[in-house]
Amino acid sequence: MQHRIIVLGAGYAGAYAAGVLARRLHRADVEITVVNAEADFVERLRLHQLAAGQDLPHRPLAEIFAGTGIRLRVARVTAVDADRRTVTVTDGQGIDRLEYDTLLYALGSTAADHGVPGAAEHAFAVAARPSALRLRTRLDELGEEGKVLVVGGNLTAIEAATEIAESRPGLRIALATSGELGGWLGPKARRHLLRAFDRFGITIHEHTTIERVEPTSALAADGTVFASDATVWAAGFVANPLAAASGLTVEDNGRITVDRMMRSVSHPEVYVAGDSTFVIGDNGRPLPMSCASAGFTGMQATAAIIGELTGRKVSKTSLSYVGNHISLGRKDGIFQLVDGDARSKSGALCGRPAARVKSVILGVNPWSLRHPTFGMPSRKYRLATTREHVPSAVAA
């Protein structure tokens, strides 16, 4: 009987991991199923571009997984039962329950509304493709006139504000953040950020906490009312709530607690990659939710799964965090390096060079999903249970 591997989520972490598993494990020994809510790979790092009105490349997962033997199930995950090793999904055909032997949980994160009244009902987000498209439709309705308020001071808020300002110069853009905009950046990077906001004509409201969102306004804690024809909620992310209800051990923030191999500390047949992972990085701090973290945790999880199933030695993947890359429209950007304590260094790459570097990264990511084992030996490993627990490799 084939070993059943289910991968939940086909974002940066899940799609990459599934591709590696399919190419490194012998097809006769494993059955790999990927469950994803959409039929396409969604470039989350570019959703602010989609919301601003730009068209993104169409990347069907069926094409990305073509020839690998991966079974793609386009469905929404509604429940995970870690004790019974089942996943409940729903699609146009109804509800189905899938059983697994090994689970890779990579459902990622969603926009955090922090319980602010009206945020879920009236605000727009760019954390998922449907919400980004909803914002795009609203901006189209506004045309060249209207007020847009972006709530948040993190990378997503900055990228959304600058992208909308550049793509739709007729709109009046403001940003409200509870802290200091770019306060975590080094002095060079922050100066560049503020100059970019000034160039785009974006109004900044620092130390401003939004306590309520209405259809055409947002109310701050100090009583200030901000008129807004479209409020963009970009005040952070939260792990998919399915994890906390699954029976897996999670942290207070809902992220799944794993060991150094990305294995659940409570259910050893469950591995985790991406934003849902709570793991301590090489600097002694929890890895942040980011594309870079998705890559590192995905690589470690796949190596651990392959090692567990084949009896091969598992190497440790670096769990480092080197910095923040921020787009400021299509022709500007910031790449801020951090030190071992995650503090921003004084220097930074700014302007067009930073924008070009990010453009290269965005181009490489989809390519790597189609070629996840590029540079690796062309071999597929048999499961230890099918080869009397003797690790070996056979021709692909």
What do you see in this structure?
This protein is of the alpha/beta class and 396 residues long. It folds into two domains: 3-110 and 238-322 and 363-395, 3-Layer(bba) Sandwich (FAD/NAD(P)-binding domain), CATH 3.50.50; 113-235, FAD/NAD(P)-binding domain (3-Layer(bba) Sandwich). The protein has nine helices and 24 strands. The protein has helices spanning 12-24, 47-52, 61-64, 119-122, 129-142, 155-167, 187-200, 291-310, 352-370; strands at residues 3-8, 30-36, 71-74, 76-81, 86-91, 94-99, 102-105, 109-111, 147-151, 172-176, 203-205, 210-214, 217-220, 225-227, 230-233, 237-239, 256-257, 270-272, 277-278, 323-327, 333-337, 349-350, 379-381, 393-395. It has a five-stranded parallel β-sheet with strand order 3-2-1-7-18, covered by helices on one side. A hairpin with a 4-residue loop joins strand 13 and strand 14 (225-227). The longest helix has 20 residues, at 291-310. The chain is globular and about 65 Å long. The two termini are 20 Å apart. Mean pLDDT is 92; it is low at 387-396. Belongs to the NADH dehydrogenase family. Its cofactor is FAD. Pfam families: Pyr_redox_2 (PF07992). Keywords: FAD, Flavoprotein, Oxidoreductase. It comes from Nocardia fusca.
Short description:
This protein is α/β, with parallel strands linked by helices and 396 residues long. It contains nine helices and 24 strands.
